[in-house]
Amino acid sequence: MMRILILGSGGRECTFAWKLVQELPKENIFITPGNAGTSAHGTNLNLSILDFEAIGSFCLENKIDTLLPGGEDSLVAGICNYFESNENLKHIYVFGPDKTGALLEGSKEFAKKFMAKYGIPTAKYESFNKGQEKEAKAFLKTMNPPYVIKADGLAAGKGVVIPETLEEAENWVDEMLVNEQFGQASSKIVIEEFLKGIEVSFFAITDGKDYLLMPEAKDYKRIGEKDTGPNTGGMGAVSPVSFVDETFKNKVIEQVVKPTMTGLQKEPFGYRGFVFFGLINVDGNPFVIEYNCRMGDPETEVVLPRLKNSLSEIINKSKNGTFSQIVSQLDERYCTTVMLVAGGYPGDYSKGKTIEIGTVNDSIVFHAGTKLNEGKLQSNGGRVIAVSSFGDSMQEALDKSYSSIKKISFEGMYYRTDIGKDLF
Ligand code: AMP
Ligand code: GLY
């Protein structure tokens, strides 16, 4: 039976552990570093997700056969390549793309070139390196406002700016290329056409050949009601998404998912694991804004509960070449999640606040930034807890999440009260 180590400590990883413990004995599930919630579903470790040597040793000593990286960092750093190229470790299956495959998320330019090559709809763009500020500014003059400027590399979700005026846009070119505002990540930039529409995310799981489409979701990125204020990691999510009808879904499958899978198969890199399609619906047509090589957070907290298939079986089948046998089984109900965050987040906030949770029957409480301190539950991050619920309607699911939240409290707790409202 599978013995698995999950890498990460957020609501996404808690959801993975919650799902897997329904399929595997708790003794077979490990999470590093995990949080207070994951310790209920498996064993937390204190290994850094980037310390591949320590992770490898732990796997050997504890007969771990599968690694499930939650976020992009270890994938972009090449955890797959590390395990595959090490004689002692190559029997351990890393469920994620190799270092080059992970560039679909790790480099905006790489993703853009991939999309161009496989005819996948996306915004028109040009990329520029340090030293090409003049060319970048000349390109800006050919574009209409607002301007979309992206740091090429990973910038913790902060690497995209959308200035309204040409002057601001030109300043950003210098900020990124000359002043390296986002470090190495912005020594190259992508400037692209602004797309107007509503965003939605699709997710697939693949063995590099076949794929399984998971439910779509919409997340709520900004801290304030009506999507105002600074960006966060995500304040809530809903699935399914009302404007995703059969016609739109078919366009996504035919124009985006299938050509992406063709590309993943043809390219010389190794790709398996999750593909996250960040899309924008422009007048009924899907355009790809970004790829991620992992699941979303908090999207996982609404997508995974709706997946009835066994996750461990999916992972096993992707490993032994029988992935095409999987028939996806989805829960037709709505699932919604509302994120409870620390006061001050995404700016400065404090940790170590005592969390009280009463009996919650109607929702699933996924821990994100939490820890146990001498047996007491405390906050340990900006996004603290995600409260997910099912309902036959989105309203019913939301009502359950919001009424369960009343049973949870910690000093400074904040959440958005308008998750899903724009979709009614
Ligand atoms: P990304 O990190 O690429 O997902 O971009 C962050 C956010 O910027 C997205 O979620 C969109 O809201 C916005 N964005 C990115 N690219 C575009 C674009 N071409 N047109 C409009 N909005 C965009
Ligand atoms: N919620 C967006 C992300 O995980 O990237």
Major sheet: arrangement of strands? 16-15-10-11-14-17-22-19
For the record, what is the CATH homologous superfamily label of the largest domain? ATP-grasp fold, B domain
Helix content: 25-40%
Which term fits the overall shape? Answer: globular
Largest sheet: 8 strands, antiparallel
Main structural class: alpha+beta
CATH architecture of the largest domain: 2-Layer Sandwich
Instruction: Assign the CATH class of the largest domain.
Output: Alpha Beta
Query: Would you count the extended β strands for me?
Result: 23
Mean pLDDT: 96
- Please work out how many helical segments DSSP would assign: 12
Domain count: 4
CATH topology of the largest domain: D-amino Acid Aminotransferase, Chain A, domain 1
Q: Flag low-confidence runs.
A: none
Spatial gap, N to C terminus: 44 Å
What bound compounds does this protein have? adenosine monophosphate, glycine
Global Rg: 21 Å
Share in β-strands: 25-35%
Keywords summarizing the entry:
424 residues; alpha+beta; Rossmann fold; Dna Ligase, domain 1; D-amino Acid Aminotransferase, Chain A, domain 1; 8-stranded antiparallel beta sheet; 5-stranded parallel beta sheet; 12 helices; binds adenosine monophosphate; binds glycine
